[in-house]
């Protein structure tokens, strides 16, 4: 009577301390039996031999392009992304932006950018080692579908938040009365929660359709070339991720839907909204219509949207092709895909530096905030925080300097 699959799996667990698929388990046992019949025994120190095999090619092909940007481009981008987006989150919380509903979207976008960037941390560690590490290899592969899901959720949220703040700005310029009625803090939080729920529901598919398999092979190792029968055998595992063939239709539907709602439609909508904002903001005198804070937010919105269009727009073609081809990438398509992945990482990093370069008010707030953080004198720190939340005009600076002097005088104990 043939053993059942569960019995075969249990046999491999008892013999090799590994949970293997029944077919793989039978292969391993048959290979070991054949080697032992030839007089080849098990290696006496298997722990000194590589337990896992690296499936990536470090020297050629598309793997080389992926590993190069993961090793040399992503680590500095992670550092810049963390400090830039963290400063964005802190600066958006200054009193200067109180009352602006758009700033909540911008703050959430900065957080989504950081999550998107640091969901690649295991990829960077995995690419940095030419030889697989016994603790990292299973962690990297078994967590890969979940980190891909987190990455896609945060990337989709970043795109949607950019679209939301752009549409809100269009409403502010074109229909100010409707803007004041509907664009409230409460409505902003409702939209944020619903968007996060929809993005999670959409990308949960990745975990369902992606299978991570551990395939074990029997390898021979020659300890001493001069001695006969010096070879021995050891077990080596390799991980691979593949699309579950039972969910192929579901996967293609997911790829097409993601391409539409996360890339194509938001990109077109942002382009139209940006053109409307630039046209209205350029050809109409808005000096009396909007406050200094609102004009600052409008400029930041335009900068954010244009940056997103520059770095994420070209991804539309690549994602369209990948949705059609599935896993059958050509070499050129694979390179374009990695190039767009790198552009997405740059897009998650660059908003802070674009604001810093293009917006005088944001530059003033950043400088004052950093001065306040590194200042040890409590009076000066309080003054710098106060300056960070004010307009960067000359009169504001004069008033703040005078306030700092008065505060220092009042803070001194009186001898009378």
UniProtKB/TrEMBL annotation:
InterPro entries: GPCR-Ligand_Int (IPR052954), GPCR_Rhodpsn_7TM (IPR017452). The keyword Glycoprotein does not apply. It is found in: Membrane. The chain crosses the membrane at residues 73-94, 187-209, 253-278. Keywords: Membrane, Transmembrane, Transmembrane helix. The keyword Isomerase does not apply. One of its GO terms (cellular component) is membrane. Residues 84-355 form the G-protein coupled receptors family 1 profile domain. PANTHER family: FMRFAMIDE RECEPTOR-RELATED (PTHR46641), G-PROTEIN COUPLED RECEPTORS FAMILY 1 PROFILE DOMAIN-CONTAINING PROTEIN (PTHR46641:SF18). This is G-protein coupled receptors family 1 profile domain-containing protein. It comes from Caenorhabditis remanei.
């Amino acid at each position: 009577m043939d053993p059942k699959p569960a019995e075969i799996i249990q046999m491999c667990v008892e013999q090799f301390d590994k949970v293997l698929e029944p077919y793989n388990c039978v292969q391993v046992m048959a290979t070991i039996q054949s080697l032992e019949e030839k007089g080849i025994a098990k290696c006496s120190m298997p722990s000194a031999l590589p337990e896992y095999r690296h499936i990536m090619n470090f020297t050629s092909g598309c793997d080389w392009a992926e590993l190069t940007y993961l090793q040399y481009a992503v680590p500095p981008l992670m550092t810049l992304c963390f400090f830039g987006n963290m400063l964005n989150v802190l600066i958006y919380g200054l009193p200067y932006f109180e009352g602006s509903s758009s700033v909540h979207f911008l703050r959430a976008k900065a957080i989504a950018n950081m999550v998107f960037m640091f969901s690649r941390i295991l990829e960077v560690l995995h690419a940095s080692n030419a030889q697989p590490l016994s603790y990292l290899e299973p962690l990297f592969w078994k967590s890969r579908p979940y980190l891909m899901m987190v990455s896609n959720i945060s990337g989709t949220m970043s795109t949607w938040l950019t679209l939301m703040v752009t549409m809100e700005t269009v409403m502010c310029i074109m229909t100010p009365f409707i803007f004041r009625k509907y664009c409230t803090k409460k409505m902003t939080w409702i939209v944020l929660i619903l968007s996060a729920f929809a993005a999670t529901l959409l990308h949960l598919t990745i975990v369902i359709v992606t299978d991570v398999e551990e395939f074990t092979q029997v390898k021979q190792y020659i300890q001493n070339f001069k001695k006969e029968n010096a070879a021995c055998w050891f077990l080596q595992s390799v991980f691979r991720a593949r699309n579950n063939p039972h969910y192929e239709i579901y996967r293609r539907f997911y790829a097409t839907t993601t391409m539409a709602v996360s890339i194509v439609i938001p990109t077109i909508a942002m382009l139209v909204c940006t053109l409307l904002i630039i046209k209205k903001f350029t050809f109409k005198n808005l000096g009396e219509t909007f406050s200094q804070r609102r004009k600052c937010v409008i400029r930041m919105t335009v900068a954010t949207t244009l940056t997103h269009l520059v770095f994420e727009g070209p991804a539309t073609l690549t994602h369209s092709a990948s949705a059609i081809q599935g896993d059958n990438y050509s070499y050129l398509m694979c390179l374009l895909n990695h190039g767009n992945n790198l552009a997405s990482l740059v897009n998650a990093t660059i908003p802070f530096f674009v604001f810093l370069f293009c917006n005088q008010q944001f530059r003033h707030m950043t400088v004052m905030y950093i001065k306040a953080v590194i200042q040890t004198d409590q009076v000066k720190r309080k003054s710098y925080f106060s300056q960070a939340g004010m307009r960067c005009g000359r009169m504001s600076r004069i008033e703040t300097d005078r306030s700092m002097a008065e505060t220092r005088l009042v803070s001194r104990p009186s001898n009378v």
